[in-house]
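Hey, resending since the last one bounced:
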Amino acid sequence: MNRYASLLLILFSITAFAQKASYDTQMDDLFSKAYEHLYVNKDSAYHYFNEIEVLANKNQDWATVFEALISSNRNAGAFYDLDKLSGNLNRLDSLFLKHKPYLDTLPEKRLYVNSLLYDKGNYYFQLNNYRSSRQTFGQIIDSLEPLPNTEMDEELIDLLSVSYSFIAKMYTDEGKYELAQQYYDKNIRYILQKKPNDLASLNTNYSLLAELYGKKGQYENSNAYFKKALGFYLKDQTGINGIIATAHNLSENYLALSKTDSAQYYLKLAKNYLNETHHFASYHHRVQAKLEQKMNNYELALKELNFALHLEKEKWKNAKNESIAIIYNEIGMLQAAFGQYVSAVANYNLGLEQVEDFDSRGTSTLKLLKNKSVSLNKLGNNDNYKATMETVNLGIKTLDTLKPSFRSKADQLFLIEDAFPLFESGLEAAYQLYASTSDDSLIDLAFRYSEKSKSVLLLEALLEAKATQFANIPNDVLERESELKSEITYLEKQIKNSETDQSDQKDALFTLKEEYRQLVQKLEVDYKSYYDLKYNTTTVSLEVSQKSLSKHQLLISYFYGNKAIYAITLNRGKKEMFRIPIDADLEANIKRVYQMLSDPKSDVMALGSDTYKIYELLLKPILNSGDQKKLIIIPDGLLNYLPFSALNTSPGGIRYLAENHAIGYVNSATLLSELEERQPKEHTILAFAPSFDGTVSVSNPDRGKLLPLPNNKKEVEQILTSFHGRAYIDGEASLRNFKSQLASFGMVHLATHAIFDDTAPEYSYLAFAQNGNAAEDLLYVADLYNLQLDADLVTLSACESGIGDLKRGEGFLSLARGFFYSGAASIASTLWKINDASTTTLMTSFYKNLSKGEAKDVALQNAQIEFLDNNRDNALSHPYYWSAFVISGNTLALSLPYNWIWFILVTLVVLVSGFLYFKTKKGVN
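The structure tokens again:
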């Protein structure tokens, strides 16, 4: 794990303060000999630094004593001699305390103090005590970062730089990749600014950044950086550890790419510089094991891993350590890959013993539990399935403990993605036990597993908003939090849209993000109720979900695994569980259906045939009652691409699911429960219909121009015949007007262009009226995290507004999802590029139906049926024209029908007027 630690060591120039000529001569001689052996011959270097210390003590030259011990620490760190490092640190602590008045007089005090902190940080790092290490390196950053350039010499610059690198390395090891990259990028900019000719530091950071890319699976990008650094190390010939570490990583990357020849080449290169006593030897055998496994040599791979385990146990003197747990995990994975599941489970258990203290559990523990659950299921039989569920329960507990430490959305997504097989193992075990025992409590347990896997980030965002509201946090703190979020988003957009060097802005962004992280961390520490509400890991139970359903509702929760789709269905009186095997044909059919649905020229009968196959697998076994008129679908995986309304339910003809069922979607039952708790607002509508002339380039030039929308103005005008509200048309439909007005309305309708950015999903956007400044025309997904919308319905009448980067459990990272972050209760969005004219017709009917008091899903269903009935004999019957819209979230009716509201108001006015009239008349009489 810590194979890069030696690359982070820095050298300090040691200045001896002469007291007399003979003393100076002796010291010069001793330092010269010590440096000759530094990082080369451990014991000889120690010997000379010890002589320096003894002589300096005799002469009460405490500065030289400090320097000798600090230099000895550098030597100990390079050789991973933790006992020596620990002893030196204790002595330095004692000396600094004893000679504090003297230390305070030294011009080098700042260097000595921060050097000691560096050695402590490195010591904690080697012990895998990342919390203490990060705090210690943070002290260096807090001490040195605010200093003006005039007070920063080369040694202090190195100390600050290496502190950034260590913190980034720890974030990498913990799976917090976005945070790690922020620190590496910051450090590389710092080195280029302060020491542009320091190629050693630059290439060390390039290697570390390459390691991060490799962990994220970006192997080609990783290899490019590794090869750049390796070229430097081979030319320089002083960075032996750099050659070894970089060659090992290149070998691993090429194994991941199934390029065994290249992997062998770099593994041999590493071996040329390595011996069995080197601290990288253990890692070398682990990489060799991966190569042997790739070449199907099980026994040789196992032998390599067992030798690596032996070396690691020797290093830690058989004390428990996470690095030993990691090797046990690799042994288990090797055995599982070759069908040795009993042995695999045994090694996973040995790994878990290394991290059995719950407080120290991290991503390694989660991986062990995940892999153990998979192997237990492979063994089959009820006892193993029960053991799987115990393992999954512990894994979920570990995941819930880990999540609060993952501050970045991107890092949380990686964490959840990595944990996903854990939930699948739990569902498989629950299903198999249910199939053999008919114990329906297992359906409840399976439902919990499915819920725990879904929409974690969106739920956390909604809970955070609730926590902010109820935790009694001072207004000035909340205002600063809001300011920081807005400033961060603004700077990110500036950097993304700029074509020039943005080093200063990137540094400013780094500082803002650090301030924001520290502010949120302080909130979580100072306000326990805020923390408890924000990280409430309770999911809604199956029983509670059942009770919330109306008589004709059926909830279908899908979990899309690697091997099977699991469907759990609930109505008020019944619960069932289904398992649908996944094969290449099913996935190919789903992808083909999406392409055909989004193409108005595709063959309707061929489409009907393919959608019937999907219906037959996913729904036909489930829809066994004619009373199930309203479906609440929790999609997962590729199922997010399907508008279920367009599935053909007839084996011999065409009859769409929408013709018999109203369909609403939601990310999870827990999210639905949260959304249904909201109090409805007054149902006035805010509508926007900007105009476009097709000549203004957008920020994503590969998407072309924003073309005119001939019918969006008509669409908005017709909607306003069903609800009172305000429309902004053409040039008035600006982003500024949208932001200033949105809090006053219960519904929002945006008839505009949406552009999906598949390279940076958070910068997908909605376009507003053009005013010459692209930054003020576009509403990005990232902007939505800073808006407070609180609307009962948001309709995104725009192309692909419901499409985004598809993440396991989370669904699409889309514009629609962004509006849920803003506080919307329900969202109507689209799954492909829609037709402007048919959309206007559909939306007019949709809002007319809403105004009659119909539930949102029923209102959309009836609008689609009306459209179909009017176009059955022409090309507009193709599902492309009417099925792109989906309604997500709280699909309840908008309280009272619009017409009834006015009827009640008029009635009240008449009654009050009559009462006053008779009262007045009686008074006169």
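The domain at 542-665 is CATH 3.30.420 (Nucleotidyltransferase; domain 5).

Sorry for the duplicate.
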